[in-house]
Amino acid sequence: MWTVLVRAGLRPGVVKPCRLLRSVTQIPQRSLVHQENLPKLPVPPLKQTCEQYLTSLEPIVSKEELEHTKELVAEFLKGGVGERLQKGLERRARKTENWLSEWWMQSAYLDCRMPVAVYTSPGVVLPRMRFSDRQGQMRFAARLITGVLDFKKMIDTDTLPVEYLSGKPLCMDQYYQVLSSCRVPGPKRDTVVNHSIGKTPPSHITVVHNFQFFVLDVYNSDGTALTVDQIYMQLEKIWNSSLQTNKEPIGILTSQHRNTWGKAYNNLIKDKTNKESVRAIQKSIFTVCLDAPMPRVSDELYQSRVAAQMLHGGGARWNSGNRWFDKTLQFIVGEDGTCGLVYEHAPAEGPPIVFLVDYVVKYMQKTEIVRSPMVPLQMPQKLRFNITPEVKRDIENAKQNMNIMVHDLDVKVLMFSHFGKNVPWQHKLSPDAFVQMALQLAYFRMYNICCSTYESASLRMFKYGRTDAILATTIESSKFVEAMQDPAKQNTERLELLQKAVQMHKDNTYKAIHGQAIERHLLGLKIQGINDLTSMPEIFMDTSFAVAQHYNLSTSQVGSKTDCVMCFGPVVPDGYGVCYNPMDEHINIAITAFNSCEETHAAKFAQAVEEALLDMRALLEDTAKAEQ
Ligand code: COA
């Protein structure tokens, strides 16, 4: 029933039986020894999850709601339903490599019918580059492409260094899912096809310029990658044969609601030429979008404008048609020095993507174009599309919807320059927990209540682990933010409450990354309930459960060496998406909201976060001084 993710064939250098399409229920084993030795994700004890669930509700639901939920939870535990579902989950955990990963991938991504653009695909904003013309753009793109191909060598040869978290090795599988893969729309559920490991793994990337897609072979016949110089020449040819600006933005179809795109997709690929062109994009190693310059904005607004360009392309008039949003990895290089990427979230989380970015940025710093004599290369193949009246109608429809989405997305990138991880470190506090408490304080100051808050936590200590959630609004965090707003409270008491709140966040982080959080366990129990075809347990139909799952603050830390920031859309209509990169001496924070919600405002929230961070530093420093 849950067979969805399909992987095609095999990776070179790994001896495994050949098969073209493989379902995720038969996840292939990585040959790496460490991968084999990774522990399996545990199913947390039922009673522990139920107790933690009730504790997590305390700051976000009313006393009456909490009392009612306590009764439902007691019934769930005593009446045998909870035990039965738990046993089902434990059975699944014994029988599968990871009881959660496939369910998570489906429920969070592949079943989701909202457009991938804005709603699920994160963007990455890289610092503004110094070029401002087409030569600079292409030189930069050529170096970026060779950097990614250099990274790919480590994947092809299984030499990617294993990452560690809290001293434990992490599952590296996600790195093997991001190149040569693409999402494909389905009538009710999408799939992700990975072409990297077939008999004939792809040797091309796709380049899109002025809405026109090209196949660019990036390997010579002897298997060596093209040089920067060669790629630059090929990009020039692409540029010169895509000067027409009146082309239909076929790629914009991929930004649609998934059911709409699913229907348009079937319609599009009825035509043989279209089908072959779509297949070439899907199979390509990755896509490079050579974007047209966007309207100029002030330096203050520049990062926010780029974040929007990464998330949606700026609208039908601008670069939204210069994408294939289903493609897992799309690097974006604008003629005006803009650069970054957008990635389709189903196969991987942000950290592996940003690790790749760090690698490529470092690679590019040492690579310059060296002109060398070379053999002439074939003209990159332009992908043709036959635009029938039906396809044309679908494109027009997609353009309209994209423009609505563009107008609805409110983005603010805050480059917080006053301090970074250094301040919490000096005061022996976890920087991540410190930023989370600033988000709590900012939200409380704006709305005078606490909301349900989600922070992604890595489960990659476990085989095929993806994420769980740290529920950042706690009894301790609510006491801290209330004290900050209470003029009767002394700073010493506020500081004590901040320290307790940070410690609680740290404890919850520890639990989450060790597989003992509650978000995914509750999801598992719920799906188990659905699969059992019995009536849904009442705890999942309860108001408290709906409140807990309504994440007004959907947050994630994605740290990197590069001075960049990841961004993503809110997960509820009246919420914020907050992604931050705490660097040693500054913090990059990307905040999104929807303009259609009157209560939310990305720039106002950014200002509240800035003030909260500054006030928290003052609290630490003033109290420390007073104690001296
Ligand atoms: N005193 C001094 N130093 C401290 C400290 C304290 N009290 N508490 C923590 N630190 C140190 C840590 O040791 C760490 O040091 P390191 O960078 O040398 O390893 C550093 O401060 C940062 O720690 P902290 O801020 O507590 O958090 P973290 O970097 O461990 O990150 C998570 C926490 C939850 C973000 C991380 O565990 C995680 O899961 N990341 C993945 C997120 C993800 O997958 N997102 C998906 C997005 S699509």
UniProtKB/TrEMBL annotation:
EC id: 2.3.1.137, 2.3.1.7
Gene3D superfamilies associated with the record: Chloramphenicol acetyltransferase-like domain, Choline/Carnitine o-acyltransferase, domain 2
Active site: 345
A GO BP entry: carnitine metabolic process, CoA-linked
Protein localization: Endoplasmic reticulum; Mitochondrion inner membrane; Peroxisome
Any single Pfam family the record assigns to this protein: Carn_acyltransf
Membrane topology: Peripheral membrane protein
Keywords (A to Z) from UniProt: Acetylation, Acyltransferase, Endoplasmic reticulum, Fatty acid metabolism, Lipid metabolism, Membrane, Mitochondrion, Mitochondrion inner membrane, Peroxisome, Transferase, Transport
Broad class of the protein's primary localization: endoplasmic reticulum
The name this protein goes by in its record: Carnitine O-acetyltransferase
Taxonomic lineage from the root: Eukaryota, Metazoa, Chordata, Craniata, Vertebrata
